[in-house]
Amino acid sequence: MKPYRVLLYYIYSPIENPEQYREEHHLLCLQLNLLGRIIVAPEGLNGTVSGLTADCEAYMAALHADPRFAGIEFKVDEADGHAFQKLHVRVKPEIVHSDLPVDPLRQTGIHLEPEEFRRLKNDPDVVLVDMRSNYEHAVGKFKGAVTFDMENLRELPEHVHEIEHLKDKKVITYCTGGIKCEKASAYLLSQGFQNVYQLHGGIIKYGMEAGGEDFDGQCYVFDNRVTVPVNHVNPATVSTCYRCGTPTSRMINCASPVCNNHVTLCEACGDEHVGTCSDNCKNDPNLRPYDGSGYYGKQTQSYSPIQGYKSRQGQHTELALLKK
């Protein structure tokens, strides 16, 4: 068993004072030595964090003890080390930026548990719709799923016409962890789709609980791992190397900081072209050192996780004092 855990979670539950709770939550993460990205919004909480097993267990217990977050479902994965380099706890208007005029607490698609989804996905009356960005589904998606050429969920209204002819079908939406589908499925209902479902817990939970059958390729994740395997039943590769066209599910960020494109690059091309997607990028004088991972965190001089924490009086607090 690996010593670290990666936790993926979200919950739509009103937070009355997001700024105050952000401070409390950041302090909790500091005390438990967690790293990751967490969004606090008036509508709820969304995060991915990593830490030692015991610290992650304490974190989950603390959130479940809060009546607002008692219903959080954590997707828990093992890791050899931290999946993040930094800790960011931020207040934003939404826990997933969509600008869609919907409220998942009032209306959303019918939730399907992984086993229910596995049984239904091949029904001829069912259509699967991927609600993720184009670079995400480029490296992995369900067999036969409809995908949109969109950069983010805000663009969904521009693409709904592409599935207008499927309104008489059972539409099952899916995404990485389920959070986008809460709003996406609600939006489809508002646009006249009658039978709208969503994969509860997303691709990650489906892989963990139902074996990931018929998910081709890898699942893009927003941490140092970049992609993770999902299908333990009938895995297949759907993407090819951006450079040479060889089948590969290995995704990187281009080593050129000006470019930073998400591309699939085989190991051989990664080594030969030092993690770049084009010769122009390879000649970038500010090329980042390629270590084979293809992940580059933003560089911040003298970074410390405490930098994002301020006391309610607005004064920076030393970590030593926080641990007293």
From TrEMBL:
Keywords: Oxidoreductase, tRNA processing. The keyword Thylakoid does not apply. Residues 122-215 form the Rhodanese domain. InterPro entries: Rhodanese-like_dom, Rhodanese-like_dom_sf, Rhodanese_C, TrhO, TRHO_N. It catalyses: uridine(34) in tRNA + AH2 + O2 = 5-hydroxyuridine(34) in tRNA + A + H2O. It comes from the Bacteria. Its EC number is 1.14.-.-. It holds the Pfam family Rhodanese. The keyword Signal does not apply. Catalyzes oxygen-dependent 5-hydroxyuridine (ho5U) modification at position 34 in tRNAs. Belongs to the TrhO family. This is tRNA uridine(34) hydroxylase. The gene is trhO.
